[in-house]
Amino acid sequence: MADFSENGKSSESNVISTHVDEKFKVSGWGVRHSQCLVLMAALTIAYSLRACMGVALVGMIENPVLDIKNSTETNISAIANETEDSFNVKGSDYEAHGFFNALMLIPPYPQFDWSKKTQDFIISSFFIGYMLLQVPAGQLAHRFGARRLVAGAMFINCAASVLFPTVSFYGGWIAAASFRLTQGLAQACIMPACHTFLGKWTPLEERGRLSGVIYGAQALGPVLGLPLTGFIAASPLGWPGIFRFYGILAGFSGAIIWFFCADSPAQNKKISLAERNYIEEALKQNDACKRLKVPWSRLLRHRGLYAIIIAHIGNTWGQLTLYSEVPAFMDKVMGVNIKANGLLTALPFLVMFINNFFFGWLFDMLIVKKYLSVTWSRKLANSIGNFGSTFGLIVLAFYGQNIYMVETIMIIICGLNIASHYGFLVNHIDISPNFAGTMMSLSNFCSNGVGVLAPNVAGLILTDVTSIYLWRKVFLVTSGLFFITNVMYLLLGTSELADWNEPDLPKADEEADAMIKKNGNK
Q: Hey, is 13 helix, strand or coil?
């Protein structure tokens, strides 16, 4: 039999795979599931690395009183303060005695006299890097594949995180900001790479559940990371231990991804022919598409892309308000020190993580059972998340008068908001599995570019942080954005497969496909 495949592989394997479908159980555990779990672990570590800076600053700064708006990063500060005096000394008084002290491997650890402005810049430097590389990251994922990009991002985060304590002491705040910027640049590649991976590995019938496994890390990261970070900060490992712990985990996860994951079923050596055939037939994959350029002109004219971008902007703005401003409201207006109570912060994330799998199953079943079309399934999911958040914030604005009411509302909002991930977040893959990473990089760039203004707008409104009336305005503005962006998504959104997703095949590949089909019909 003639060899028509690109890498010298016989087309025989493709023919064989067409005869084993009847033995393959879609509901069984497969390679696609294990790879999604690996990516979920990596994303969980990445989110912990993103959020750990606030807790670490509690021990790094000479003044233990640190007021940073993002309470998801600082809610364990009270734990870290308990042992701060035992393990830390002022930078001006710090003297390295011996090799281990010089590398800050044993206490006491130096503290810095950085101003609040400097601290805020160090925190924001990560997000500056994260923003800068979003669009190029989509192209990198398309050209080099998800495996190399995610593994490389984790290796860079490993090195930057492990070296961060030493570099911060000897290089000052400029070096610290530079290393956080580097981490942000690396992590910018993860979301587009994950979407590129999902576009190659997830049939429509399982898209919600498998993407939910990976992106469940957005909730799992705070649930596990915040208490663990506070525990490390209060231990003899001190604030340097935070960065080293997560840095080492990032290195391990990068190695696992590098050696055990693959960009597509065709490149995975462990996958069965049956599972490979099931995925490739469902997605109508063709390896030639990865060599082609992104059809920018047609992609940028697609209305579905703009529906996703609008929905993504509303979701990002809303989440930043929920996670940063609501705890500040509880602190300033209600007198509840949310920073000292990890349970109050982690509980909404825990409910979000649990509901993530329920909604993933629900919307996959609606599609599989054909109760709803793919487009209306995505719109329903987005509406549950956004309209639920809309009305939750209205209730919070007018009736959030005690801690039990506020915490209950936060749990309900977070529990419902995760449904929107099965709306706009997986919609990229519905429209174009081959270019999902590119579309994700565009929507993520736009949403973060606009969403980052949410704390600034809240700051302009809150001329008096103790005024319930002004806080009501903040919540109503966010509620309105949730509502308006979802209405726009309902009007413009679509899940129809784009005609530019399947590029024209080169002539040689057409001949190969014709021969494979001919042999398969014999």
A: helix
Cα–Cα dist 473/438, whole Å: 36
Nearest to 264 by CA among 282, 244, 245: 282
75 and 342 in contact (C-beta within 8 Å)? yes
Enumerate long-range contacts of 172-180, CB under 8 Å, 24 or more apart. 173/112, 173/114, 173/118, 173/121, 173/122, 176/122, 177/121, 177/122, 177/125, 178/125, 180/53, 180/122, 180/123, 180/125, 180/126, 180/129
Specify the pLDDT at position 517.
Answer: 46
Closest of 354, 50, 286 to residue 191, by C-alpha: 50
- Its pTM stands at 0.76
Number of helical (H) and strand (E) elements in the chain, helices listed first: 25, 2
Q: For residue range 457-502, what is the model confidence (pLDDT) as tens digits? A: 887 888 887 888 998 999 999 999 999 999 999 999 999 999 898 7
Q: For residue 353, give every residue at least 6 positions away whose Cβ sits within 8 Å of its Cβ, in sequence order, or none.
A: 216, 219, 220, 223
DSSP code at position 114: -
Q: Give pLDDT tens digits for 170-200.
A: 888 999 999 999 999 999 999 999 999 998 8
Q: What is the CATH number of the domain that holds 91?
A: 1.20.1250.20
- The answer to whether residue 7 sits within a structural domain is no
The angle at the Cα of 184, spanning 183 to 185, to the nearest 5 degrees, equals: 90
Q: Does residue 24 sit within a domain?
A: no
Domain boundary among 264, 284, 304: 284
Element (H, E) at 89: strand 88-90
Q: How far is CA 122 from CA 72, 184, 460, in A?
A: 16, 11, 22
Domain that holds residue 501: 293-522
Percent share of the chain, pLDDT over 70: 77
Peptide bond into 265 cis (omega under 30): no
Q: Which residues contact 112 (CB under 8 A, 6 or more apart)?
A: 60, 61, 62, 91, 168, 173
Of 132, 137, 124, 148, give the one whose Cα is nearest residue 50.
124
Residue 249 lies in a domain: yes
Residue 171 contacts residue 160 (beta carbons within 8 Å): no
Please compute the mean of the pLDDT values over residues 351-378 and round it to a whole number.
Answer: 92
Q: Please classify residue 491 by burial: count the beta carbons closer than 10 Å to its beta carbon, then call 0-12 exposed, 13-18 middle and 19+ buried.
A: exposed
pLDDT of residue 491: 96
Distance of CA 85 to the CA centre of its chain: 35
